[in-house]
Amino acid sequence: MKSPLLPHLDDIRARFAHVEACPFEGPRVFFENAGGALRLKSVIETSAAYAGYPDNQGRDNPASRALMAAIAKGKADARVFLNAPGGEVFVGESGTEVLFRLVRTAALGAEPGGVMLGSTLEHPASRSAMARWAEVTGRPHVLVAHDDATGTVTADAYAKHITPDLRVATIVQTSPVTGMAVDVARIAAMIRAAAPGCLILVDGIQHASHGHIEIAAYGIDGYAVSPYKVFSRHGYGLGWASERLTGFTKETVIGGSPRNWEQGTRDAGAYATFSDVVAYFDWLGGVTGGGDNPRARIVAAAAAIHAHEAALMGAILNGIGNRRGLADMPGITLIGGAGEGREGVVSFTLATMPAADLVAHLNARGIRTHIRLNDHYCGNILAPLGIASCVRASICHYNSPEEVGRFLDAMEEALA
């Protein structure tokens, strides 16, 4: 298998905690990255340090100034990572909460009337927020249907519903169930051409760890990331809002800055740990031949990640060495088919074994995966297919060809 990361894979894996073994069950292959990626060791160290600092921001002492500097650096680093020179970077309680706040602010600040547009591919975080604030503001919430066969939603599908009266639109960049990517830039450009005033919000939560982000090129107004899915930790979400969206009225204390998206005292450690994430991308881009500045190295890192993960996913689907892949195994149904465009995720069923039993079978053989159910999280994908549950295997760039081989061997045992 060819990959630009293979010569560096040992160094990459050494920077993450619990790569080869779970602290509770022992050795295992971690193919549950869509549920939350492995943590950088630097993030764990930074979290511990900042959890111990007793000082608050905004005081006249060295400790307070250090916390303020960490926040400023975290915001600056996030701008480089997102390629977002304008607008505001902020943290909230989670990626879901950030999406709700972006949608709420957009819906209440947009011109009255009109339509709010999303798609059936979206995670319930954005879809629920849109439904809620469409109802509150008396607007129809139109959903563009995704394609069951390919597991994605296309720009052409959006085009049928793009009208000049659009007020708020949401786009999911990568489906957390099918793993299929969406052409955010093209869809946003089509919306902007027809409805220049429409506020466009993007759910980048599943995408962030798998490919580079170019907010400056998207022409959008809001973007959300869940840092625990991009090598940081639980407990916060990262958001970006355009100048236009930031100018709308938001919840804030009386007399506070009208630009402020954050409520109360934020965790400086959240910003510091995101700086750790950006530093990791910078390092990775450097060892894979990146440019002479952090943004260029981050872009290089993302390209190398994409190539490595594409090779791993190709091996999972089509086989590696003398092992056959999922696409060639009898009784396997791939959610979204075996086409191109996956970003680290494949969901599937096995005709001869219920999904829960298959997850248990894999877990018993040291392969960590996850069951997805026809419920409020995944029913939008599974219900139209008539599927009650499926298995989701999700990889990241620190996973290895050897781990793919172990997964395929365990699948062959399940077939037998």
Automatic annotation (TrEMBL):
Q: Which domain of life is it from?
A: Bacteria
What positions does the domain Aminotransferase class V occupy?
Answer: 29-407
User: What keywords are assigned to this protein?
Assistant: Aminotransferase, Pyridoxal phosphate, Transferase
Q: Which InterPro entries match?
A: Aminotrans_V_dom, PyrdxlP-dep_Trfase, PyrdxlP-dep_Trfase_major, PyrdxlP-dep_Trfase_small
Give GO terms: molecular function aspect only: transaminase activity
Q: In the UniProt record, does the keyword Hydrolase occur? A: no
Q: What SUPFAM superfamilies does its record include?
A: PLP-dependent transferases (SSF53383)
Keyword Transferase tagged: yes
Which PANTHER family does UniProt cross-reference here?
CYSTEINE DESULFURASE
Protein name according to UniProt: Aminotransferase class V-fold PLP-dependent enzyme
Q: Which organism is it from?
A: Albidovulum sediminicola
